[in-house]
Amino acid sequence: MKVLVVNAGSSSIKYQLIDMETEKVIAKGTCERIGIPGSKLTAKGNGCQKVYEEDMPTHKVAIELVLEALRDEGIGVISHMDEIDAVGHRVVASGEYFSKSTLVTPEVLTTLEEKTFELAPLHNPPAVTCIKACMEVMPGKPEVVVFDTSFHATMPEKAYMYGIPYEDYKAYGVRRYGFHGTSHKYVSAEAAAFLGKAPEELKIVTCHLGNGSSITAVDGGKCVDTSMGFTPLAGVMMGTRSGDIDVSAIQFIAEKKGMSFDEAVTYLNKKCGVAGISGVSSDFRDLIAGANEGNKRCQLALDMFCYQCRKYIGSYAAAMGGLDCIVFTAGIGENTPYVRAGICEGLQFLGVHLCKSKNEARSGDAREISVKGSRVKVLVIPTNEELVIARETAALV
Ligand code: AMP
């Protein structure tokens, strides 16, 4: 069985074609600048790469070009569209309307459009545009939606509720939903397999640290709490997002700067985080380079990030009543020994003992970076959200 995984952004589409017998990626690529002049598709297959510099005014045109690339004489990996058995789509927010991956029907599309667009206005509309484009271009092919929020659906009420009037939660669905669920699900399951334990036996904190970062408490294989909230703005400070902040402080800044409420939210999402603290960059490579050259604000941004992550790990150990394993994943989690060391520093009292040389060794594989005998195992596990989407899609069709 071959599953096409589609991850749609407002002006981009990332895709992978995965052979489910081997779980290997047989083709992948990215369409950029959809609807904007200068659009292009970079496609890989058969060990080669081809760049299509073609006008893509809509997601439908982009999907058509992807299908053409999959059948290309040089980089193509299929000869007919019928060789694709199903399409799995990443959808960021499900609200309380879907708690698991779902086969797309007209009713599902209507619910997505009418109920979830306002929950994720930047992400869910392009995903639905893409689903519709695939339905047009590949009529009759099963389409599945896989939600970033599903893994967090097991959170208990006490973890997902905010301290607002209960009627407002009921009326508007305002609560913690969490994000990066497919990643947290994948790496927590891989961690259990790596340790040779059943997920039910383990209390794990998974740290998905990338441009967007979230930390999740996984007890017995189930999410019991997560740092992102109603939107991805909450939790630890990120590349350009503030993370948790006193709302009244924002009202104060907005008054001083003459910002509207919408402008203040954009400011919190785009101007804050490590980029705002350092004044240099949202990229951790630049921050580390800056700190090494003596830039105090780069150093402060790194210190704040590590400190906030450490606090979440400590609080989740308390929430679960124990901790067996910490997992690092995503761009920063997989590639930045400095940050992993900074986060684990001071957690020795919990039984976390990082091995300096293992932490600093470069590898793209799942690995342990704690010392032999560390009571809490610290692992680096490369995430694979596309594989989770493909697996859930295959399971449903
Ligand atoms: P992501 O959102 O998961 O793609 O992560 C993006 C962030 O990961 C970038 O902003 C960088 O700060 C960080 N990152 C990615 N690759 C590396 C690397 N090789 N070394 C250090 N940091 C990296």
What would you note in describing this structure?
Helix content is 39%, strand content 19%. The strands form two sheets. Strands 5-4-3-2-1-6-8-7 form an eight-stranded mixed β-sheet, with helices on both faces. α1 (59-70) crosses α3. The longest helix has 25 residues, at 296-320. It is an alpha/beta fold. The site of adenosine monophosphate (AMP) has 11 residues, from α10 and α12.
Calculate Rg over CA atoms.
21 Å
Structural class: alpha/beta
In whole angstroms, the N-to-C terminal distance is: 10 Å
The fraction of residues in strands falls at 15-25%
Round the mean pLDDT to the nearest integer and report it.
Answer: 96
Oligomeric category: single chain
The hetero compounds bound to this protein are:
adenosine monophosphate
Count of DSSP H/I helices: 15
Overall 3D form = globular
Secondary structure tally: strands: 14
User: What proportion of the residues is helical, as a percent range?
Assistant: 25-40%
Main beta sheet strand tally, sense and closure: 8 strands, mixed
Given as residue ranges, the uncertain stretches (5+ residues, pLDDT < 50) are: none
Question: SSE string, helix = H, strand = E?
Answer: EEEEEHEEHHEHHHEEEHHHHHEHHHEEH
**How are the strands of the largest sheet arranged?**
5-4-3-2-1-6-8-7
